[in-house]
């Protein structure tokens, strides 16, 4: 009896848990079966002039979620998601721990345990004995090896930046030596990497006595880094499938950002009135004589003036006043909430 309630004993609880596990697996299998059929249909719909192959090569993303962070987790689950439809195709639970083995080891001598284990082995929870760090790659390998059973080959993997999974799959070649597995990078991770590299550069140069960060105009402050990341991502997304144009667009954002009145560097920026580059857009709008450059430079100066204004004490006081007014409003709202929704109010 706990807290005036009759609770079931441990073995009854375990029996119920086992029944629920079986039922959930049954439902999961049926959902996965339907999802795979849909994915195969989606890929065969893409084929117009040729026969639909028995096994489709598809692009997937793979990731694992583990019980604890870092490289000490005892169990977790790895799953594969199709990129075209967004359906989960398969999953596998990885475990370095088996509760029943642990109890049996405690209760019986080793010779008896060996006999017991021979019977228990097919249903033992342990399916990974190496380091916890390699558990994700191991999960991927299990999923890749059995994908052909349901008519799909995961030949392109969208990576989350963890190189070990892709390396393991490339080394093991689950579909034979002639089928290579391609890797694609996630744009969000690429963008994040640029931010990390820029922040690292700021801190590294600080230790060398050179100040790149700070608050003034033209410094690599957090907001500027976020802006550069956004430009970088846009340059990649807008030029999908054209590597040269992508490279040029990335350089354009870099040169555009370091451009000054004395040294305008908008040569790589896209031209035309619709250009995101204010300089090139101005050039396209007024395309005669010295006025073209004059307009571009004037806009550049306008930005500098605005940035300087934002850095003045008066402007900062004004922003401070707005911030504290907002804070006061929020606190007042919280106080009201505290009085309105007292315990037992509903
Ligand atoms: Zn076991
Ligand atoms: Zn520009």
From TrEMBL:
InterPro entries the UniProt entry points to: Mutator_transp_dom
Pfam families recorded: Mutator
Domain of life, per lineage: Eukaryota
Domain spans labelled Mutator-like transposase: 3-277
Protein name, per record: Mutator-like transposase domain-containing protein
